[in-house]
Amino acid sequence: MRLSAPTQAIFIVALLLAVLAIIGQLVPTVPYVSAYKFWLAIAAYAVLAAGCMFKGM
């Protein structure tokens, strides 16, 4: 399996999801983000991994 660098759009989406997860951890008063911070972090990793595994994504 050959890995490729993710496109800039995929990287930014993964970065935004990761930042939301960090905000959810540090600021517990944000209702939706605080409740799903773990899943936001998992989604950020999955998006980034998919962007590396599939060519042109």
General shape:
elongated
Q: Order of helices and strands, N to C?
A: HHH
Radius of gyration: 13 Å
Name the beta content range: under 5%
Number of strands: 0
Q: In percent, how helical is the residue content? A: over 70%
Distance between the termini: 15 Å
Low-confidence stretches: none
Total domain modules: 1
Largest sheet: none
Question: For the residues shown, what is the average pLDDT?
Answer: 91
Helix run count: 3
Q: What is the structural class?
A: mainly alpha
Concise description?
The protein has 57 residues and is mainly α. The protein is 72% helix and 0% strand.
Protein described:
The chain contains three helices and no strands. With 57 residues, the protein is mainly α. It has one domain (8-53). Helix 1 (8-26) runs antiparallel to helix 3 (37-53). The longest helix is centred in the N-terminal third of the chain and has 19 residues, at 8-26.
